[in-house]
Design a protein that fits this description.
Shape: globular
Distance between the termini: 40 Å
Strand content: 15-25%
Radius of gyration: 27 Å
Largest sheet: 8 strands, antiparallel
Length: about 725
């Protein structure tokens, strides 16, 4: 039952990779190296390296008072309002509108409403297209008598961190330590408060130990709940409620999964040690450490999701309780005993060009397409003001520059450089007439001019939706432009770093302009996109590939500026996003994470919610499988090879998708991404199909598709990329 992971001394040797195919003549560098490495942004305040020199005064875009952003003050304690606030957190529903929508804080659904907190061990609603967890208030905890019964304030967030949030119920003397992955719900009761604990079910059995520090509650829905207290508590009950005498101390609630009596001794053993907060530390490259602030006595029991279990390091000593399991929408949660965890990822390479190179015989066809695509570049022809679609056009043009370098056709670089400068600069200096970036001081972050007055503009960018998607495209274009025009890069470095810091700030201090990692979830190990919009199923994210692009592009910008800290941070976030995408978005035949019906009918998730998995997309029904594949592929980049490193899965994914192309009206752009995936295992067949395309996604081009397919090798079934082609040691050691 117990599995020990003991400390081991390991030597990591990172060898330089060898390309399987290489042009006989290496391309010349586009430009000399930029002038001295830039100092890291002050936003990157949790160093992954020893070399860190903060800038004196970070650049801020012009301030604005948005008319569409909600007021955070009703839900945050006053001392938190002076610092940037999270806009994509795991507790976001608690701080939007009435704050009364549930949040899934593994393993429980938790809802705060009417000065009470309800706890649910969720059941599952399942179909072959989507499934979600159902909230029922199995237990609701409140004070029997509030000190100010007329107060309308429901709850207050008094503190939060990467792995926890503390929720206070005003005038109730109740403080809840909501720590992600805790099998217990922990509440601190002060002031000699009498408690009310109610249920929507009938209480069939109610018993306590002789010390009145443990109660067992059996309900008529087959659930068994355990209640532990730090000192004796007197509880009485009727058919559906329990009340206590005046009490001060800790109470903890836990469900027995499947009412399994074998788990009870484990709960008993670990009931006296409780976490009050938890944080994640990115202290070493490709290493993440969890640390919990705990109280009580004994060892700390937490739950790990499937990706945690894959990444738990042998360098740490924890005890895995392999038979102590909770069901969850993210797969089985398994008990882990230890005050801290170390998670280690395989390094990935951040490279400008393809890992394997382009064979010289492919140059002519790529160059021919490249000429035509570059000839079509003209900033005055850009008809969109949308920060998303504009960013995609910038990213598309930047790809052309790097492909030109790879096929040794540098004649087109000046035209691409001019386009990128003319397209990007107005967004950075505020001269773009149709839109632009502004700074919101209420939550601490960027909004667009359009988004500051219209919550639906720019896909909700003004309410902090999709920030990493939009800004990722801009960062990709900026990174390439800095590479080919270092003088421009020096001039606009402050603005470039401000865009990056909006979603990649690591610091927790009050002087930051942006919150810590706006989109990235350091417990789930992937990003969320939905911003300050309330959803019954919590946060969501559609495109993992665009999330990967954001962190990859930030790392490229680090390469362009000689900023190893930014390279390492972007690389690590990209690596975690990739692992999470492969775990929860890529659905493999025979996987056990999701229910069998869903796994059988799907090869990719459309929108992944905190409390739901959906085959549909925001813009397309589940039947449009070409869109479901494409949105998880675009933009097509060198890092795509790592994201889709499982060739066997790619083959199954394309096979699953191809029948959708028989539907009338399928867009040529979506076809391009399917053929790109097909090129991983059938280069010649994919080339033939790509050559017949009549159009391309607005962030893609014929040049890019030809480059991708010609850089595919003879891949073996299974996984490639990741650690095998890692160049991490070359720039971080």
């Amino acid at each position: 039952m117990l599995k020990k992971m003991r400390r081991k001394a390991k030597l990591l040797i990172t060898k330089s990779f060898k390309k399987t195919s290489k042009p006989p003549k290496a391309p010349k560098p586009l430009t000399p190296s930029p002038s001295p490495p830039s100092p890291s942004s002050p936003a990157m305040a949790e160093p992954l390296h020893h070399h860190h020199h903060p800038l004196s005064s970070p650049f801020l875009f012009p301030r604005t008072e948005s008319s569409v952003i909600p007021d955070p003050s009703p839900f945050f304690s006053s001392d938190l309002l002076s610092s940037p606030l999270p806009t994509n957190s795991f507790f976001q529903n608690f701080i939007l509108k009435h704050g009364d929508q549930p949040e899934y804080i593994h393993p429980y659904l938790i809802k705060s409403n009417s000065s009470s907190l309800s706890l649910s061990s969720p059941s599952l609603f399942l179909s072959s297209v989507f499934f979600y967890q159902i909230f029922n208030p199995d237990l609701t905890i409140s004070a029997l008598n509030r000190t100010d019964p007329d107060s309308q304030r429901r709850h207050v967030v008094s503190s939060f961190n990467d792995l926890s949030v503390t929720l206070d119920l005003p005038f109730s003397n109740l403080r809840f330590f909501l720590v992600r992955g805790s099998p217990f719900l922990t509440c601190h009761v002060s002031g000699g408060t009498a408690l009310s604990i109610t249920t929507i079910h009938a209480i069939l059995s109610f018993s306590s130990n002789s010390h009145r520090t443990k109660y067992t509650i059996k309900l008529n829905n087959s659930q068994t709940w355990l209640l532990y207290s730090s000192s004796p508590i007197n509880l009485t009950h009727d058919i559906s409620s329990m009340t206590s005498d005046a009490y001060s101390g800790i109470i903890r609630f836990a469900i027995l999964p499947d009412s399994n009596p074998g788990y009870e001794s484990i709960f008993d053993r670990f009931s006296s040690c409780y976490p009050v907060s938890g944080k994640a530390e990115l202290s070493k490259p490709f290493s993440l450490e969890y640390r919990w602030d705990k109280k009580g006595w004994g060892e700390l029991l937490m739950l790990a999701h499937p990706l945690h279990l894959r990444l738990l390091s042998d360098d740490d000593e924890v005890t895995i309780l392999e038979d102590f399991k909770f069901n969850s929408i993210d797969g089985e949660l398994v008990g882990v005993v230890g005050d801290s965890w170390k998670l280690k990822l395989d390094p990935i390479s951040i490279t400008w060009n393809s890992i394997k190179g382009v064979k010289e015989e492919a140059f002519p066809e790529i160059v021919s397409a490249l000429r035509r695509d570059v000839e079509d570049l003209n900033p005055s022809n850009i008809s969109t003001n949308s920060s998303y679609f504009y960013g995609k056009l910038v990213g598309r043009a930047a790809r052309l520059a790097l492909i030109a370098e790879e096929v040794c056709f540098l004649d087109v670089i000046p035209a691409i450089r001019k386009f990128l400068k003319d397209a990007i600069t107005p967004w950075l200096d505020g001269t773009f007439s149709g839109n632009g970036f502004l700074y919101d001081g209420k939550w601490g972050g960027l909004v667009t001019k359009q988004g500051s007055t219209d919550s639906g503009a720019d896909f909700g960018f003004g309410v902090y939706n999709d920030h990493h998607f939009h800004l990722g495209y801009f960062l990709y274009g900026i990174a390439v432009l800095v590479k080919i025009d270092p003088a421009w890069g020096r001039k606009y470095r402050p603005q470039a770093y401000s865009l990056m810091a909006d979603f990649m700030t690591l610091g927790r201090h009050s002087r930051s302009n942006y919150p810590r990692l706006r989109c990235f979830d350091l417990w789930k190990l992937h990003s969320w996109a939905s911003g300050l919009t309330e959803f019954a199923d919590g946060r969501n994210q559609e495109s993992t590939s665009e999330a990967v692009n954001a962190y990859y592009s930030a790392a490229l910008m680090g390469l362009a500026y000689g900023d190893t800290h930014l390279v390492a941070t972007g690389s690590m976030l990209a690596a975690m996003e990739i692992k999470a995408a492969q775990t929860w978005w890529h659905v493999r035949e025979g996987d056990k994470i999701y229910p069998p019906d869903f796994t059988r009918e799907n090869r990719v998730v459309g929108v992944l919610w905190n409390n739901k998995r959906d085959g549909g997309l925001w813009f397309a029904p589940p039947e449009w499988r070409e869109c479901r594949l494409g949105i998880q592929v675009l933009p097509l980049l060198p890092i795509t090879e790592v994201l889709f490193s499982d060739v066997g899965f790619v083959r199954d994914l394309v096979k699953w998708t191809l029948p959708a192309l028989g539907r009338e009206g399928v867009g040529e752009g979506w076809k391009g991404f399917i053929y790109a995936m097909e090129g991983i295992y059938d280069k010649e067949g994919a080339l033939e199909k790509v050559r017949k395309l009549k159009g391309y996604d607005d962030g893609n081009s014929l040049t890019n598709l030809l480059w991708w397919i010609y850089t595919r090798g003879d891949e073996e079934e299974g996984r490639f990329g990741e650690g095998k082609y890692s160049l991490f040691g070359h720039y971080c050691h």
